Amino acid sequence: MFNNTIVKIPSESYINGLTTSDLGSPIFEKALEQHQAYIEALNKCGTEVTILPGNKEFPDSTFVEDTAVLTPKFAVISNPGALSRNGEIHEMEPVIKTFYENIYYIKSPGTLDGGDVLQIEDHFYIGISARTNHDGAMQLKLILELEGYKGIIVELDKFFHLKTGITYLGNQTIVVAGEFIDHPDFNRYQKIVVPSEEEYAANCIRVNDYVIIPAGYPVTKQKINEAGYQTIELDMSEFRKQDGGLSCLSLRF
Fold this sequence. Notes:
The protein has helices at residues 28-44, 88-97, 134-146, 218-226, 237-240, and strands at residues 4-8, 48-52, 68-70, 75-77, 103-105, 117-120, 123-128, 150-155, 166-170, 173-176, 190-193, 205-207, 210-214, 230-234, 251-252. The chain is an alpha/beta fold.
């Protein structure tokens, strides 16, 4: 059950953010509309949404998930792997301190993006990616184990972030795509398999009674509905252009 979510409005510099996609430049006005719809969806899911203003200094800072890892008992301030994003944590830290007293930090040379961290009950899966290195992953693993959780490090092959290709829906059920479909670390779970042509839909989020999914992926939506989940579809076109997905746009706790 999530009671709170944190989001950050895209700034005018968002169109100049980092990306590996070839989908074209985002349309800023449309991104704002899509972000507002995202906030409305989080409200519908029953969360109290903390909305932070945009900051031109950090074009990618609307992707707040990368700045922290939040659990019911403690928070971990990350150390984002992209140098241009590292300063985002200094804006997020005082906000997180309004909700948490017990806070840990990932320290250099370790790097960690929150998008590489997936919680499934008492297990945390930590992806090694272009943004999260072994040092950062090991720091988080030790923190988690100190707090009674299990940390499992997963080497990524193709996906940008761990949560680009896998989502936990609850009830031991995961949504998986690509390299995670047959990955041995996830064979213990029931799987909703995303077809290759709908791979982007693997990044969805379960928020209380709903699963928020990107619009335009009918096969994946049908599979999630048939598994017993209500869905909310959101147009994510302007965030996909910047390598962003639904989970990237909020911190949920």
